[in-house]
Design brief:
The protein is α/β, with parallel strands linked by helices. The protein is built from 14 helices and 13 strands. It has helices spanning 18-26, 59-80, 90-93, 97-103, 124-133, 162-170, 194-204, 221-230, 247-253, 265-268, 273-280, 292-300, 312-321, 325-353; strands at 2-6, 30-36, 47-49, 84-88, 108-112, 136-139, 155-156, 183-188, 210-215, 236-240, 256-258, 285-288, 303-306. A 7-stranded parallel β-sheet has the order 3-2-1-4-5-6-7, with helices on both faces. A 6-stranded parallel β-sheet has the order 10-9-8-11-12-13, sandwiched between helices. It is globular and about 60 Å long. The chain starts with a strand and ends in a 5-residue tail after the last helix.
Length: 358
């Protein structure tokens, strides 16, 4: 059996693809990853469309490469005669809807990880066809289900390495805090959301007992760096791109992971990569209240669920100085165990899709 995995963009922005490729590798299934190397930074991997995305100019100039990528995907699927497909995101699934319904009805998994063009009213009927014609519909956060078409079954597909999660639960972590050092707040991964991250910078700017670090690249990275310079922030570091294998070391050195997001539906419903990293590496988090991450944070006492950003420094100091690390680690593991149950259901559905017994 040969499987095609179709991404809407760069591989480096799609770490979630590994939750599928690990299963496919275990089952010795042949597969190709089809991706759009939008910014030219992906290393050769699978079957790539290498035309750069245009981010300025007329709407036609911006859309034209996207349409050519859709054409490239169809051509690739036809040429390789895949038995089944895994399609990531409505921005690629909706344009492929007619093609999928004719050629691959009930022969593809649809995986949903972000709000996209599916939220436009005119496209909602097409999107519903994508969901009803798929074999399985996966969502990366239970928060999304409230915003998706009803009377359709959705399976949770958490974005983590299951081996790392099980190892994190099995490992006994003992850590002593050094309260004489600055509290280190880390933002790592794709640096997006200027509005929310600039509020965190402002709240902690030039606080002598705090250090901030942004590690990664993204649309907001340069803008945030400029903002920090404009307000004279002296306790912040921007590191830029980092090799993925260095990620654990950055996280282990920090006091809090910053996952504070804008108070809008697309962000209040998601579970971010950083949220899982916080659980795995046992690091308390800064999240937004009235969100799925805020709900988990409050239920399991995983850090600060922010309602008033102006009081952030006082809340972080109070939480950090009274934190019992052993008990905190147990709470992280309790939620991870809940997520493992979700993963078992996810894997069972993938194996059923592949017609392989668990």
């Amino acid at each position: 059996m040969k499987i095609g995995l179709v991404l809407p963009g760069n591989i480096w922005m799609s770490p979630f693809i590994k939750i599928y490729t690990q299963i496919l590798d275990e089952c010795d299934c042949q597969y190709d990853i089809i991706s759009w190397n939008r910014d030219g930074t992906d290393k050769p991997n699978g079957i790539q469309f290498n035309e750069l995305q245009i981010i300025s100019g007329s709407r036609f100039k911006k859309v034209a490469p996207y349409l050519r990528y859709i054409k490239f995907v169809k051509h690739t699927i036809r040429n390789n005669k895949y038995d089944k497909l895994i399609i990531f995101g409505p921005q690629i699934a909706i344009p492929l809807c007619g093609f999928l319904s004719i050629k691959y009805k009930k022969k593809y998994i649809f995986d949903y990880r972000d709000f996209s063009i599916d939220q436009y009213s005119v496209l909602k009927p097409i999107f519903k066809h994508v969901l009803t014609n798929s074999a399985v519909n996966m969502v990366s956060s239970p928060g999304y289900i409230q915003c998706l078409p009803k009377r359709i079954q959705y399976i949770i597909s958490h974005n983590f390495d299951i081996a790392a999660v099980k190892q994190a639960i099995a490992s006994e972590v003992i850590e002593s805090k050094n309260t004489s050092n600055p509290i280190e707040v880390l933002t790592i991964g794709s640096i997006r959301n200027f509005s929310s991250n600039s509020l965190v910078i402002k709240a902690l700017s030039n606080k002598s007992n705090f250090k901030m670090q942004f590690v990664g690249k993204g649309l907001a990275a340069d803008q945030l760096k400029t903002y920090a310079h404009q307000i004279g922030t002296s306790n912040i570091i921007f590191t830029g791109y980092y090799p993925k294998e260095q990620e654990p070391e950055y996280i282990k050195k920090c006091s809090f992971l910053n996952i504070f997001c804008p108070n809008i539906l697309s962000h209040s419903t998601l579970l971010s990569n950083r949220f899982y990293l916080g659980l795995i590496y046992k690091r308390p988090m800064i999240v937004s209240a009235n969100s799925i991450q805020g709900d988990y944070c409050e239920k399991y006492n995983l850090g600060i669920s922010v309602t008033n950003i102006n009081k952030l420094s006082e809340e972080l100091e109070s939480w950090y100085n009274t934190m019992n690390y052993t008990e905190f680690s147990k709470r992280c593991n309790k939620l991870l165990e809940e997520f493992i149950d979700d993963y078992d259901t996810f894997k069972s559905n993938v194996l059923d899709f592949l017609c392989i017994s668990a």
